[in-house]
Write a structure and sequence with these properties.
about 270 residues; mainly beta; 4-stranded antiparallel β-sheet; 19 strands
Length: about 270
Amino acid sequence: RPNQYLSIITATSVVAGYTTASSNTSIATAALVNGQLVVTPVLGALGTVSITVQATGFAGSTASATFNVTIVPAAPTASTLQTRDNRAIGRFLGLYAVGVRDTDSAIARVDFYRDTNGNGTYDDGIDLELGSDSNAAGGYNARVATSTFSVGANTIFARIVDTDGPATIITQTVNMVARPTATTITPPAGAVNPRQTYTVEIAGITPANNTNVRRVSVFLDSNNDGTFSPFTDRLLGNAVYNATTGNWVFTGKASKLESGANLLFI
């Protein structure tokens, strides 16, 4: 009959409670939170601590277990590596590491490299360092020369280093184009008077069509120093692409020139 069987109405754990302790609370602390053991590193502290958990029974007996926890530096992070400015070989290129941060230390610097051997992986001592920035003001960036770049895809690395030592590598690919050149510049055949127009024809431009050449501009050497400066020399206008000949032709007004010889820059 049911009343002849043993009936267990309630049961209690044989463990009365748990306690936990850290061997070095300056590195990490230990606590029991909602039945879970939580180990919390101290900000900026590194090293190894021993965590001990002890269980105590209702009869007063105890049992314990100890394990080690090693706190290592967190690596810095960044969201993206961006490239800006001119992407023609020989011109300067802007590199910007965006969203650089670190959770346990300060950022020491950001170094920028080009993947010299083309294997897609940062190689210390092999890849070419392009620049470095240790000043967070204005973001971590560098304005780098591109004379060593290759036409087409170039892999760029940003190596983010924090004061604890760990470094993080982020990667970006930038497609470079050859700097345009011209083989022949044909000025007016003879002198022109102020009421006339004149033409300058530019031939043998590489790249050889107007798809890759944005514009061909003509400047007057305003200060007669023989050196081109887009800030001081006067822009006379832009040449027009001639699809039939493949040349660029500039038509200008002689009234904008000085008497005598005029030096023009293309």
